[in-house]
């Protein structure tokens, strides 16, 4: 009760003219994307910024990354535990129900305290948090709407979030048109570019020596960065897919750096396969949480990327890296010419790795890049 009272007292002292912004963040991934916008909101006296942290941010198993938000100096209004131990289909559905139940109480209290709430992306937990707010008529702004990922159930959640939201900030012109089609209007739909790419200029990348000191990884060795998550549409095939990937990686002479999977359906099964592989091979390293600075630093120094994550689609081109994109998880997304598409089959993955090695650095454009997306978002907010 004391902490709850402290929040109320703090808001009584807030300046009346400030536009009160809350940001929903459920994982290290979306928090890293938000960072350029968070910095600008925090620095601008026109806004009062608050954070609502939930999902894997509050999971010890996933690194308890809410500590990073606190370390960065942002004020957290709510810390909401919503992650269950299991990752079965029922557990995911139960987690969604739990998230909606907990957020119904939050929105009941906060419905008149926030002028606008930001949500991002397509995760089931983000969908649940925002869906719980619909009866309260809370205004939302959605980042990264209009995209298509046919290999993930996230595709459906993303389009629902667009329907829930009042303002839309998309990464490409095509995605703006898709959002307009979904909501039946082009009002309040803005193509600003990919927010995460602003981090490349804003974040002081680790030197190779500092990277080794922080993570214990000698990045001077030829390395490959692997970020491969479950396909949540074809869940029954994920064990087969990850084994095909591991069989291909096992034949590489490079150092393999694997980022561990998120809380998708069957993520734990994939994690166990990784852990066995890591334990059996001295040149394979597993990382639970790089953080944005660590992940971008790793991306800068490795030879190329392997996996099926949005970071390979959106950010890798700006680091001049080729990406072996495996399977259908990202199918439907606009891609730059650095993407080497393969099926989750050992032989195809190895062919992709050979091709990336042969090509070296990618020298083309990033279709997601636009100057100062956070500034564009701020300018829109000031017109509201």
From TrEMBL:
Q: Which UniProt keywords apply?
A: Glycosidase, Hydrolase
Q: Which residues form the UDP-N-acetylglucosamine 2-epimerase domain?
A: 40-382
Superkingdom of the organism of origin: Bacteria
| Matching SUPFAM superfamilies | UDP-Glycosyltransferase/glycogen phosphorylase
The GO terms describing molecular function are: hydrolase activity, hydrolyzing O-glycosyl compounds
Q: What processes does the entry annotate via GO biological process terms? A: UDP-N-acetylglucosamine metabolic process
Known EC number: 3.2.1.183
A Pfam family for this UniProt protein?
Epimerase_2
NCBIfam families registered for this protein in UniProt: NeuC_NnaA (TIGR03568)
Name by which UniProt lists this protein: UDP-N-acetylglucosamine 2-epimerase
């Amino acid at each position: 009760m004391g902490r709850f009272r402290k929040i109320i007292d703090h808001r009584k002292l807030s300046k009346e003219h400030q536009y009160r912004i809350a940001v929903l963040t459920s994982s290290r991934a979306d928090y890293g994307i938000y960072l350029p916008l968070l910095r600008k909101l925090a620095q601008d006296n026109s806004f009062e910024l608050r954070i609502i942290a939930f999902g894997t941010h509050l999971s010890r198993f996933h690194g308890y990354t809410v500590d990073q938000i606190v370390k960065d100096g942002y004020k957290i209004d709510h810390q909401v535990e919503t992650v269950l131990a299991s990752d079965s289909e029922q557990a995911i559905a139960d987690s969604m129900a739990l998230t909606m139940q907990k957020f119904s109480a939050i929105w009941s209290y906060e419905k008149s305290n926030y002028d606008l709430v930001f949500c991002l992306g397509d995760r089931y937990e983000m969908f649940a948090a925002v869906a719980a707010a619909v009866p309260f008529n809370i205004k939302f702004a959605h980042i990264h709407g209009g995209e298509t990922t046919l290999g993930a159930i996230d595709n459906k959640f993303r389009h629902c979030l667009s329907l829930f939201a009042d303002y839309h900030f998309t990464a490409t012109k095509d995605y703006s048109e898709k959002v307009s089609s979904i909501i039946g209007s082009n009002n309040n739909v803005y193509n600003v570019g990919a927010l995460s790419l602003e981090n490349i200029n804003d974040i002081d990348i680790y030197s190779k020596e500092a990277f080794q000191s922080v993570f214990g990884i000698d990045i001077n060795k030829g390395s490959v960065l692997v970020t491969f998550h479950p396909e949540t549409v074809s869940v029954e095939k994920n064990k087969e897919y990850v084994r095909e990937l591991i069989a291909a990686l096992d034949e590489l002479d490079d150092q393999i750096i694997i980022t561990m999977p998120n809380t998708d359906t069957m993520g734990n099964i994939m994690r166990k396969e990784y852990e066995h592989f890591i334990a059996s091979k001295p040149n394979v390293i597993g990382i639970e949480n790089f953080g944005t600075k660590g992940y971008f630093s790793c991306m800068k120094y490795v030879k190329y990327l392997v996996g099926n994550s949005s970071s390979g689609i959106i950010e890798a081109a700006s680091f001049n890296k080729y990406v072996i994109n495996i399977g259908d998880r990202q199918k439907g997304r606009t891609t730059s010419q650095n993407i080497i598409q393969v099926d989750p089959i050992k032989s195809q993955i190895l062919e992709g790795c050979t091709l990336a090695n042969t090509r070296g650095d990618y020298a083309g454009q990033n279709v997601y890049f636009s100057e100062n997306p956070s500034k564009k978002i701020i300018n829109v907010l000031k017109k509201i």
